Here is the input.
Amino acid sequence: MRSLVLVTLLLQCQLHLTISAENSTAVLSKFLANVNKNLAALYNREVFANWQLEIKGPNDLYALLQSELASDEIMNYIQSIAPKYAKFKRLKIGNDQLQRELAQIPETGYEALPSTDLKLMYIVTTNMGDIYKNTKLCAFHDQRQCNLTLIPAVQNILHNSNNVSEIEYYWLEWRRKTGMAAKEDFVKFVELYRKTAQLNGFPTPSDFWFKDLEENSAQAVSLLDRFMQRLQPLFQQFHAHVRGQLRKLYGEELIPRGKPFPQNLAEIFIGNAYRRADPEWYIEFPYPEVGMPNITAGLLHRGLNNAQRVFWNVADYFRSLGMPQMEDTFWMQNVRPKADLDEESMRCWHKAWKFYDTQRVNFSYCPLVDEERFFNMFEALTDVYYYRAYEHQPTLFAEEPFPHFSDALGKMFSLAASSPRYLEKLKILDRGLVSKELRINRLYWQGLRTIFLLPVFYVLDHYRVDVLDGRLKISDNCAYWQLTSDFTGAEPPVSRSNADFDAPAKLLVEVDDQYTSQIMSTVLQYQFYEHFCEISGQYRPDDHNYPLDLCDLSNQRQIGPLVMQAMSLGSSKSYKDILQIMTNASEINIDGLLAYYQPLYEWLVEQNRIDGVEVGWAPTTKCSPENGAV
Here is the structure.
């Protein structure tokens, strides 16, 4: 009898627990439904206000006010649901999909700080940003003229100067007026960031830093380390050639053999690859007699002389991949020109604008027609397709799986469109123009813009997370230069010490902007490209007739449905699951990038041998911690 009563009690407890779990799951589902609905309304207000600023200009005070109010309301709402969010997170109820949706609710972030600390965090981050944007330098030739901004004034001076003393002067002045000025704020930022991570429940500040990647600190750093290790042979050969070119320009006294190159001179050489008009004016190409094709002239000759024609031409490219055809009314109903070109046309880009919980995507376009805006159109239209693909997802899943993931797809299509074989098909390049020499010139130019950035981004995030976790002392300026020297092959032009503070001069654009996701995105675009080119037969490893850099994906209709399927998932799956769908691999790897630049690597190895330039560099001796880290 006793055992029967015991069994009955156990069955009742189990039933009660089952009903409680079901009720709890229902409560969680209702909570998430309300969050999705409320966030959609709040996000839409913010997007609409920013859309108005884009098409009417930053002087639209009403739109500016609405944008600020919407941002405040979003944060207030996230704070209001934080206790329930924390409770559901702690209880771990519901299925995996509900748990993932719950995890997509934005963290309170800095708002977890006490009000006094939060105000201080806003002050120090604003101060550091303002230092970068508003610092004025005195002119080298007239130091009474002290109204020069770094961009574009000093930048233009440096890219047109052969005076080493002038170049060194601005390099030093910028660090003196930014790094040292920001040091106190940077120290306070690190203290507050550590507290923020703790209050948000992260074991270490670096885990909080990498939270949007769904990787802990150790996993993220390990991934980056593998990238750098695989990149090293290509980077060292490229570095050796650039150092040899700098030696031709500035002499062996300034560019000694076997040493890192001076950062100030290398930045100008590499930065010249970003010059918009006729890069051969500024870069010593491997084959200067061949130069680079004038794609802007080819666009105009082809009749692609306004943004609307470019838009529809690019839309036809996506249609040829088997993606949905853009409706004829889209341009009239959803597209508006950007209000102005800012003070610099370089910030004039095409942009897609997504709305939530509604089937609408707007588009703003830059009226300029040139090579960069043409390829940017592929990136912007990728976003249009991306936003439409996941518009059925709840608001919390209406996102990319990690920051800059959509950039990887957009830049992959831009990379595919830059294939000389596609440009010949489009009649932007003359047929038969592509030669080995032209290919090497093009890869050299692209490599300066890509390969040299990856180690720089790596150093910046490596330094930052080491500081946040306390492995590096903030005042250990020489540790920063050691990292810079080890991975980028650059050193300061003059002796530095721990009395200087040089790292923040590179970090002030956005003090909490993460470079790791940009590295992952850059690597991923080549991984996508390699996979799609291989499955379409346009790239065949070890077949010189089908190299990756000449792959043309147009009219490969099997690609579009695969891309749309992955896009439709939004952030409802991890990026590894989405990668598995798209590439049959769950890990990001650098193989595609190395395959793309393989012809350049082979050329660099042979040319460096012919020129007798040394490969690799000794550690820098330009920074001595004579003042000691504290």
User: Anything to note?
Assistant: The longest strand covers residues 361-365. Strands lie at 136-137, 148-149, 261-262, 335-337, 351-354, 361-365, 490-491, 496-497, 623-624.
